[in-house]
Design goal:
This protein is of the alpha+beta class. It has three domains: 132 residues, Rossmann fold; 65 residues; 50 residues, no CATH class. Strands 2-1-3-4-5 form a five-stranded mixed beta sheet, sandwiched between helices. Strands 6-9-7-8 form a four-stranded antiparallel beta sheet, covered by helices on one side. Helix 1 packs parallel to helix 5.
């Protein structure tokens, strides 16, 4: 897009995300990408838990992006933040939720996208024997997907990251076992150590780029996006308003043009099963 063509964009990452993000943003937006070299994004939180994330995924991604832009003296930036755990609608299935944010200080634009995926190897297991560890490693795709070992002995916590091979995994496990540690193995969710997560980041980036390229119908500015949704879709049987979305509002961040659109799924009525009157 002409708004971004030829401009420099900094990618806030310590974990190799530029490998998938840079080609996408360069090809779709015409920007020149670089990544941060002197910003430790782990200071805002680590997946292994030694530094807890203080804010939401979106606020953390925003802070990460703004800090990287400040250090790089750039007015365009992109950052991502991942969240892992039980799927919000299918609790027994693990999920990866990737939040990406794009900030353009020159044009006062901020666009974000969220991708929720069940494509993840996210797992953690207490390890009581070498056989259990080897079974865990095979299940999570080691060594292409790295593993972290945690050893707990009283108040002492040993955290072993960057394990590259079966021989190293066995060696580190043996050291922890001989020292009397309670051992937990978990998947290393850092992007450069988890190809499955990297694919979800790529999907989130494509979703973000699509939102950025959605131009305002009035002024042509990018990032014309959904800003609110109103419930009230009527029941098909009794016409009582339900909690389902009736209409959505899209707003331009540049000229403030607003458009109200009908239910995004094209539905005019809701199933009586979801009606508070027909199915209280």
């Amino acid at each position: 897009m002409d708004f971004f063509k030829g401009r420099s964009l900094v990618i806030a990452t310590k974990h190799g995300k530029e490998k998938v993000l840079a080609p996408l943003f360069e090809s779709h937006l015409g920007v020149r990408c670089s990544s941060t070299q002197d910003f430790d994004t782990d200071t805002l939180g680590t997946f292994s838990g030694e530094i807890p994330r203080k804010g939401s995924a979106l606020s953390t991604a925003r802070e990460k992006c703004l800090k990287a832009m400040e250090l790089a003296q750039a007015d365009l930036g992109v950052a991502s933040e991942g969240s892992f755990g039980a799927h919000p609608h299918i609790p027994f299935i693990p999920s990866d939720e990737e939040t990406l944010i794009f900030i353009d200080r020159k044009n006062q634009l901020e666009v974000f996208a969220v991708k929720l995926s069940t494509e993840t190897n996210f797992q953690s297991e207490q390890i009581h024997s070498l056989d259990i560890l080897l079974s865990f490693s095979e299940r999570v795709g080691f060594p292409s997907h790295k593993i972290i070992l945690k050893g707990q002995k009283g108040k002492e916590l040993k955290l072993l990251k960057g394990i590259q091979s079966i021989s190293d995994l066995v060696y580190q496990f043996t050291l922890l076992t001989d020292a009397g540690h309670i051992i937990t193995a978990e998947t290393d969710m850092r992007a450069m150590n988890n190809p499955t997560r990297m694919k979800v980041i790529e999907q989130a980036a494509l979703k973000l780029i699509e939102k950025i390229k959605n131009a305002c119908p009035k002024c042509g500015a990018p990032g014309f996006q959904l800003t609110s949704a109103a419930p009230g879709l009527p029941c098909s049987l009794c016409k009582t308003p339900t909690a389902s979305i009736l209409q959505v509002v899209h707003t331009c961040q540049v000229c403030a043009h607003t458009e109200i659109k009908a239910n995004p799924d094209g539905k005019s009525f809701e199933d009586p099963m979801l009606c508070p009157s027909c199915n209280p």
